[in-house]
Amino acid sequence: MANSQTVTSRRGRKLSPFWRYAPFWLPAFVLYSIFIVYPLATAVGYSLFAWDGLQRGAFVGLDNFVTLLTEDPWRRNLWRAFRHNIAFFAGTMLVQNTLALFFAVVLHSLKRGRQFWQNLFFMPHLLSTVLVGILWDLILNPLFGPLNQALRMLENGISNILGVVGINASIKLAYPWLGLPETALATIVVVNAWAWLSFPMMIFLANLGSIPKGYLEAATLDGANNWQVFRHIQLPLLRPAITIVSVLTFIGNFNAFELIFVMAGSGGSPGGSTDVLGTFFYRTAFGTGSERIAIGSALAVLMFSFIALTSFIALRIFRSEKVVYD
Amino acid sequence: MRIISLLTALLLLASAPAQTLDMWSWRTEDVEAYENILQNYEGTNVNFEAFLNTEYNTLVSTSLQADEAADVVQTRSYGGVMDWIDGGYLLPLEVAALDNYSPTALDAVRSRENGQVYGVPFAIQVLQMYYNKAIFAELGLEVPTTWDEFIAVNEAIADAGYIPMSLTARDAWMLPIFHSVIGAGTYGGNAFVEGILSGEATFEDPAFVESLQAIKDLQPFLPPDVTAVSYTDSQNLFINEFAAMFPGGSWEGAFFADQNPDLDLGVFAVPAKGTDEQLVSWFVDGAWAVTANTEDEDSALEFVNWLGSPAFGQLFTDELAQISPIAGVTPTDPLLNDIVTLWNEAATPYMLLVHFRYGTPSGTTVIGESIQNLFLDNMSPAEVASDLQAQMATWFTPSQ
User: Fold this and answer.
1) Burial of residue B372, with CB atoms counted within 10 A of its CB: 0-12 exposed, 13-18 middle, 19 or more buried
2) Which CATH number characterizes residue A189's domain?
């Protein structure tokens, strides 16, 4: 800041832009410090002490972290939750962000009705996560839910058609989606994608809109088809948007809690197959006994450090790819 | 002018004589009932206030640390109240009303450090099997008194096209309840609990493994895809008479009757696999305690003594249709009375809640997840038992 341009205040003192713009950043800074930085710092403090119920015990250094990382059942739960977070992130990238990119490109090419579709896609975004969870819970209900009823009708239909051809096979399409360890997490990934799809889509759409039309026209004149235009013009120019969407998805998915809590409970039903770091933290911090504040804080600090560090590194690596249209 | 009158009002409020006791509760739905009940108390005036259930613990903990809590507070039980007891925030009680309770009931608010009691329990919950009397009559079934009869009843119901027992295995917290309803007699009830507490028994003992095998044996009689069935679904199956039995706590009955007034409900204790012993499990829901920061200790203790009296217990069960643990109280509600009869005949503590919620992970959390895996064929009964033993051993030390 010292080298940047300075301005002179009315009283003749020199004010750097840093202080000149204080009325703009100071309120946000104060609120951020009180509600984000301060609790984070306290959590770091808590994680370094032993706890006896509500009372702080002796300073124990990194003991709580060592317990969390090396002793069962903590260690086992931690790594299982971590693996599920990775799966959740990978699944979301694959389902949500790929579909978002696809819909963005399609909507961008629409000549009419783009606003209508955009609004339609944005609708689920207006529902609270808890509402989304309960809504899909009802749709996926194994006993009365419309999804499995439709799938059962489809099963019968297919069997009947096969029967006419002379093949006797029973097709199974209706599953207890949230009740099987094999399908539960994937189902939640899809529901989560349904609710959040419009957000990356909007980012992609905005970025597609900023690509000068001339580029696309030139390519088309040279004989490029739609796929080639997308693959060689639009996709490379969208890389900064893809980076930011990926980092935001990463942060969101590693902090995931609400939807899983609503759809699979704090234990990650069934049998812990949907347990993520968020639900593991919830169980620990809101459990009973002397471990909960100590280990809970240690877990919170670990989660924050991992997410912050990974996001920082990812942004540093991809930052050089700024796109400038001259 | 308005400001001055407001200030005067505030001053008047602040200088009012301290002849009122404050009483805090998490039962926002019971405010009216408590106001009716408290009219019968002839001592100091009591001001009853209720706060949101989910925020209550945090609110009271913070107030206790700041010496600003009410004179009398509603507390959770067992592991849920130990922070307040061990922190010295509650007064130990030596009131006459303690004689109205069984020692087991008082364990819910007993310090594990000095053995003193810190509250008077207000309600208990009993776990047993509900059954639909109309379906039993339609199929000509009797309440079973042996394990074999119990299996035969299940088979007959299944053959008739009903779901024998409605259960959720998606909401894991119901699974230790199911295990207690079915298996408490099989693992040996109170004798096994004493063994576990003294270190003579472990969860890997054959009797406990057998109690887990018993619930696995019953899986064919549960709703299909039970790990996908939610708690609400399981209630609906029973309320709408698709299922003939429902293993659950005494809090369910009022809800069932409210949702379907035509339901003819009965209760029984499931005969144990192996011994046919018929046991129900139970636990204390919570208690009333005097805070250490009260400014009127004598009045508060006198009031809590009344909260532990048969007079209060009778008003409590009449107004709120809950079971009072106070001796000499009889529920007016016939179904609750049936439950109390079962409880008086043979009961054992809901072990994993009563004794294994003093540390993290709690016994109920661990076994809930494991029983899901048991139903999914990912774990055997022996594996569930040894996992429970290993996880409890991380914080639980038997008293030799």
Assistant:
1) buried
2) 1.10.3720.10
